[in-house]
Backbone:
């Protein structure tokens, strides 16, 4: 009985995210536009100006990771909206375990994030970006999934402590942009000054970018085993912190 | 981590039936809630019988929502205990949750989904099987006459439709007790009247025990079997509407005077006279509670003439719940300017995003 209920709770929360996602087509298009501009304009411009061959290919894993980061943190932090618009009460009054509520929310958000990541990957192909192999493309899916779980749970953790949507703006500007810029999405890791290198290596997103680079192009600067270990640990830790904080969150 | 484990055990623990020692649907014993020293609910002890339609009437900030939140396990009492359907609201919170439905003060719908989807998710959260869910969805939609709007996004609903959908959702899983926090706040009179009909019908046909809060006297008056008047977190009076009114003893005479100085002077005279059992003043209007109004009115006029004060108008009526409220709290519930703010707040909450 317990397992069935747990599964049902997770599934219900997942289903809700899917139903909302289904109706958010314009939001999806909008959220893919910016990264595509980055890729096409910045990728081409920097590549030709600085005579770096295939800079666009270099940027692609970084841009995909960026989309994943944005949509998963957003997915987690959307709990703030659920609180503001009251739906959180409907969930919290139900005879369900909050741990599985958080888990379902996370899976729902991750699903939408991965779909967006895959869409971007495919659209990028249409503008000339090439990948190593089909196998690599498939391998990138579970990697995106792990990245998504980690950051959505981080979002849930933050949302459980942040009381208003003003706080949400703070998160978006002081967390997501630094994470993207300090991730090796746009530059190679080898030639950095020590202070920057330290920051980049402390950033979990770096390992996501590198893992995707491995899957799509096979030439990561950090070994894939290390990347996966870091990403998995990050996902597990944030999932527990996120659902623990959500369990104690005020309505 | 331990609390997480506890959560698991609690939510999957005992089944949702009535507990053995069940007597009343709700029993509270000195239940109290304070926020940083401010006492919002102050030692409330009430009992609500099974199938009863029980009203909590009080002005803004009286502590109605806080009380409901404690009874529905949304917040923990600072002290005191409460049992709902025989289960302790703190120690057996999961069992209480399975037994109750709650319609919160503000909207708690997901307005990016359709009405039907909102109900469906609710059914899933309460572990209802697919067939039962389907059947129940069409039943409750019919009850609140929303069947033809079920597949529209909630965003497109009016305030009254949203309220009806929430009531339908609260009933969907067959709760034993339904809490309704200000079910008609901010709705127009016609919609309110409709919702009263639904509430009354549901209480009668489905036998659900209902606790509703309101600061509309007519609402408490026409709907509720028994009413508890709550003010500053305390229950100041409890009983059936008629019982509360007749406890005031007799009729209310309202005298309108030219100014409040006249009123004050007359008040002191009436307070001393044996035929007036209670006299109060608001601005330049006097309220007298008397037993035999036919015989007392001439005496009232004589007193006024005797001290050279002219009465501008006089009305006689049976006491209303407003008078009951004034009697017990010294203030009129209508005096509360804040109710207008609450109305606006509700409008904002329910307005389209
Ligand atoms: N979380 C909280 N923290 C601090 N004070 C609170 C909190 N919740 C309620 N209060 C205070 O407790 C008192 C009772 O509030 P409550 O919401 O229960 O009133 P109410 O009777 O429901 O009023 P209304 O008609 O406006 O809904 C108010 O003075 C309110 O400011
Ligand atoms: Mg309230």
Residues:
């Amino acid at each position: 009985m317990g397992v069935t209920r747990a599964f049902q709770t997770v599934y219900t929360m997942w289903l809700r995210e899917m139903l909302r996602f289904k109706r958010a087509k314009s939001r999806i298009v909008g959220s893919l536009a910016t990264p595509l501009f980055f890729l096409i304009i910045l990728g081409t411009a920097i590549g030709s100006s600085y005579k770096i061959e295939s800079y666009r290919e270099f940027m692609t894993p970084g841009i995909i990771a960026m989309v994943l980061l944005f949509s998963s943190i957003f997915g987690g932090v959307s709990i703030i909206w659920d609180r503001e618009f009251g739906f959180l009460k409907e969930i919290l009054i139900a005879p369900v375990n909050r741990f599985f509520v958080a888990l379902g929310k996370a899976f729902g958000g991750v699903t939408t994030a991965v779909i967006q990541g895959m869409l971007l990957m495919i659209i990028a192909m249409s503008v000339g970006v090439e990948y190593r192999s089909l196998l690599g493309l498939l391998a990138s899916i579970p990697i995106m999934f792990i990245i998504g779980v980690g950051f959505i749970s981080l979002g849930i953790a933050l949302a459980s402590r942040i009381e208003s949507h003003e706080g949400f703006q703070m998160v978006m500007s002081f967390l997501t942009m630094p994470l993207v810029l300090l991730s090796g999405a746009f530059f190679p890791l080898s030639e950095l000054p020590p202070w920057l290198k330290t920051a980049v290596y402390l950033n979990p997103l770096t390992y996501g970018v590198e893992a995707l680079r491995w899957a799509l192009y096979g030439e990561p600067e950090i070994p894939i085993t290390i990347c996966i270990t870091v990403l998995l640990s990050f996902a597990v830790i944030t999932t527990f912190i996120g659902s623990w904080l959500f369990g104690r969150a005020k309505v | 981590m331990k609390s997480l484990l506890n959560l698991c055990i609690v939510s999957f623990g005992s089944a949702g039936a009535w507990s053995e020692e069940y007597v009343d649907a709700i029993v509270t014993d000195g239940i109290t809630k304070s926020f940083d020293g401010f006492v919002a609910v102050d030692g409330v002890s009430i009992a609500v019988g099974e199938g009863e339609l029980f009203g909590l009437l009080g002005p803004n900030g009286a502590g109605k929502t806080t009380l409901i939140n404690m009874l529905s396990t949304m917040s923990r009492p600072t002290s005191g205990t409460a049992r709902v359907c025989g289960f302790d609201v703190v120690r057996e919170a999961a069992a209480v949750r399975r037994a109750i439905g709650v319609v919160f003060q503000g909207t708690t719908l997901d307005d990016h989904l359709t009405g039907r989807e909102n109900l469906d998710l609710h059914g899933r959260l309460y572990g209802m099987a697919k067939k039962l869910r389907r059947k129940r969805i069409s039943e409750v939609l019919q009850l609140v006459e929303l069947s033809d709007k079920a597949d529209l996004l909630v965003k497109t609903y009016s305030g009254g439709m949203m309220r009806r959908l929430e009531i339908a959702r609260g009933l969907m899983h067959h709760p034993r007790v339904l809490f309704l926090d200000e079910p008609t706040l901010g709705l127009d009179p016609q919609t309110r009247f409709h919702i009263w009909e639904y509430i009354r019908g549901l209480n009668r046909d489905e036998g659900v025990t209902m606790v509703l809060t309101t600061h509309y006297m007519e609402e408490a008056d026409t709907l509720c079997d028994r009413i508890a008047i709550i003010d500053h977190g305390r229950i100041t009076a409890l009983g059936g509407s008629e019982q509360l009114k007749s406890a005031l003893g007799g009729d209310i005479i309202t005298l309108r005077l030219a100014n409040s100085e006249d009123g004050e002077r007359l008040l002191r005279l009436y307070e001393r006279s044996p035929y007036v059992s209670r006299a109060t003043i608001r601005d330049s209007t006097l309220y007298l509670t008397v037993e035999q109004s036919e015989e007392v009115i001439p005496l009232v006029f004589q007193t006024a003439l005797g001290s050279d004060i002219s009465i501008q108008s006089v009305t006689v009526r049976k006491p209303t719940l407003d008078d009951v409220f004034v009697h017990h709290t010294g203030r009129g519930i209508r005096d509360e300017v804040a109710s207008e703010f609450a109305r606006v707040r509700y409008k904002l909450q329910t307005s389209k995003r």
Remarks:
- DSSP finds 13 helices and 15 strands in chain B.
- The interface with chain A takes residues 1, 3-4, 7-8, 11-12, 16, 72-74, 94, 97-98, 102, 104, 106-113, 117, 121-122, 124-127, 153, 169, 349, 353 of chain B (CB under 8 Å).
- Chain B has a mean pLDDT of 84.
